[in-house]
Amino acid sequence: MPSRTALLPPHHYLNDGYGITSWLLTRDHKRIALLYLAGVTFFFFVGGAFAVLIRLELATPAGDLVNDETYNKLFTMHGVMMVFFFLIPAIPSVLGNFLIPIMIGAKDLAFPKLNLASWYIYVIGSLFTLYAIVSGGLDTGWTFYTPFSTIASTSNVIPAALGIFITGFSSILTGLNFIVTIHRMRAPGLTWFRLPLFIWSHYATSLIMVLGTPVIAITIIMVAADRLFHFGIFDPAVGGDPVLFQHLFWFYSHPAVYIMILPAMGVISELVAAFCRKQVFGYTFVAFASLGIAVLGFLVWGHHMFVAGQSVYAALVFSILSFLVAIPSAVKVFNWTATMYKGSIAWETPMLYAIGFIGLFTIGGLTGLFLAAVGLDVHVTDTYFIVAHFHYIMVGGTIMAYLGGLHYWWPKISGRLYNERMAKVSAVIIFIGFNLTFFPQFLLGYLGMPRRYHAYPPEFQVLNVLSSAGASILGVGYLIPMVYLMWSLRYGKLAGSNPWGAVGLEWNTTSPPPTANFAETPIVTWAAYEYPTTVEGHVA
Amino acid sequence: MPEIPAVAHERGHHHHHHPAALAHHFEDLGQQSEAATLGMWVFLVTEVLFFGGLFTAYSIYRAWYPDAFAVASHELDITLGATNTAVLITSSLTMALAVHAAQLGERGKVLIFLALTMVLGAAFLGIKSVEYYEKFVEHHVPGPNFQFDEKYFKNAQIFFSLYFVMTGLHALHMIIGLGIMTWMFIWSWNGTITREYSNPIEVSGLYWHFVDIVWIFLFPLLYLIGRHVHV
């Protein structure tokens, strides 16, 4: 294997063409992943800008920075940008796109043109939603609840919803592409139970994408029919039921949470194995836990509607089913912990993120159980407790894993190493800033501070100031990687094909990989994560 | 750490010719066809969920407002609806015959059956347009201009909302289907479709049959409810 000794291969996907069209018309999954990286990074900072304004407003009890209507728009646009244009596409479309073909020894995804089309669909959808923002904003909340969204709101519901509708097809087609690729494109010898857990979790994610996203699409069509043509499907005036909207909305939007967290779990499995130099404990259980979460995720949407006039019996069933999600989630957490036990743990940046993820996801998951309990949920519904809970999952979970994965595979993507010291410092800053931002919100919610108000009683100020201070630390933590990762592109040391000494097909090709991923199609004769067990301590 | 055996892989094929239709990232046409077929099946699953949201709404409102739905259903033209059902089923037959001819490499027959499929699809849309026009004239389009029997005015509007959204999206799928058929017609004409590479016709056929099946559900649910009672 000559490519393993050469640090920078003469031909790789980044120097295979330089013009603008070589990027905008590329069918290479690796280049498309980088197009997505640009997109999701942009929307992360757009959504983040709204978060900055929200935390600034909440630094004082009086609604003094913005008025209540502007505040409604701020939290709506923060949610819409973060959920639909960052969290849902981030890990699958960037890391999944880049890695799935390489990890299974394929030359590309099954449908490269469809993959490029998915990115364009994402961009076109985002333009509609951005238009909604710059031309006056949206104030419905990211949930678009009827009849407010269909009748009452005077803000830009239609362009924003159209943008989300369009972007949904990017999600559907990406999921479809992943499913077909994983079924049909695996290298010879790469059986299902030799697949990296990253692949299993993306397979489960893809199932949710193709089964859930069409439902939000049709729901948006019904909202549009009501709002544009006064059809009245959700309008009580003609016998329509606004709560039906909530059912349809959450049928997608609860599983959508698992679209965000399942790929994150896949990243964590890779990181824990690589930096403990061990086979993931209970591989089969972790793999099936991904599918378990995907299936159960479709059966729990009613826990968002405990106070929406749902029958007691329905609430009971949804409550029990929601508790069941804890089982596969805990299977994963326990198995990662068991993998670390007696592992040769290397405290490099990606592992810091992985450990951060495990802790924060555990807190987010356990507080989710509070919310699955009907009695407690009624008490904390629409308070900051909810806000803190889902930020622990989405920010503490998904974003930690996304950054961990980005740092782990950055040398593979770029061919270069980043500044490890700065990376560690920023990982710690992010962890501290995150907890300072969101832990006080659990307390605020439990004390009764409702979400979605721009003013609050003075007794809540101390905790809110802590939260806003934490948010500024978190913001700094997110900006630092932007600097040293960009810096590494030009000045970073050459990474070589396998800087971490990890196993996995992606480390058996050059960094950056050639356009066709491998010089020869690999034949796989080993299980995932086959680290030598006889060697004490570090692997040479 | 396991080493990669550097062995070039040749999957199943003994002859080394590289068919023009084979994309660079597949090993052979068999793998390419399997991927395309699976891709279409997965897409059709998403379509089931897409229409599923509407069928859910339909089920709930029909259970809540059975009388209004029955009365409103009587306003639909059952003759035109039944004719369209026959037209669509026949188009599925010609589609199936086109697939069969493509697998046998009978280019002339493929072109004839694809053309017939398109003519029938267009006929369906034509008849549907006549129905839509009638509803428009009768003020049965929901919204500010909606007119209906006082007693059922409110809930009949929901029936017609669902009628227009469901049949409208079905018609949109028909239009897309006609686009796909045109594409397949060109590919058959210019020789892209061969006996070895008939998979695009098969995959397009899956889509066409699916759109047909959606109508098979829509017709009884929208046109035939409450026909046995006289409200």
How would you summarize what this structure contains?
Chain A has 540 residues and is mainly alpha-helical. Chain A has helices spanning 20-24, 29-57, 68-103, 112-134, 148-152, 157-184, 197-229, 242-276, 283-297, 312-324, 326-340, 349-372, 374-380, 384-414, 420-447, 461-491. In chain A, helix 3 packs antiparallel against helix 7, helix 3 crosses helix 8 (242-276) and helix 8 packs antiparallel against helix 12.
Q: Can you walk through the features of this model?
A:
In chain A, helix 3 (68-103) packs antiparallel against helix 7. Chain A starts with 19 loop residues before the first helix and ends in a 49-residue tail after the last helix. Chain A has 540 residues and is mainly alpha-helical. In chain A, 66% of the residues lie in helices and 0% in strands. Chain A has one domain: Up-down Bundle (Cytochrome C Oxidase, Chain A), CATH 1.20.210.10. Chain A is globular. Chain B has helices at residues 29-64, 66-74, 78-104, 107-137, 153-189, 199-223. Residues 1-15 of chain B have low confidence and may be disordered. The longest helix of chain B is centred in the C-terminal third of the chain and has 37 residues, at 153-189. Chain B contains 6 helices and no strands. By secondary structure, chain B is an all-alpha fold. Helices cover 71% and strands 0% of the residues of chain B. Chains A and B meet through helix 6, helix 7 and helix 8 of A and helix 1 and helix 5 of B.
List keywords for this structure.
heterodimer, A: 540 residues, mainly alpha, Cytochrome C Oxidase, Chain A, 16 helices, 66% helix, 0% strand, globular, disordered C terminus, B: 231 residues, Four Helix Bundle (Hemerythrin (Met), subunit A), 6 helices, 71% helix, disordered N terminus
Structural class of chain B: mainly alpha
**The named CATH superfamily of chain A:** Cytochrome c oxidase-like, subunit I domain
Low-confidence stretches of chain B: 1-15
N-to-C series of helices and strands of chain B: HHHHHH
**In angstroms, what is the radius of gyration of chain A?**
23 Å
| CATH class membership of chain A | Mainly Alpha
How helical, in percent, are the residues of chain B?
over 70%
Order of helices and strands of chain A: HHHHHHHHHHHHHHHH
Oligomerization state? heterodimer
Beta content of chain B = under 5%
CATH architecture of chain A: Up-down Bundle
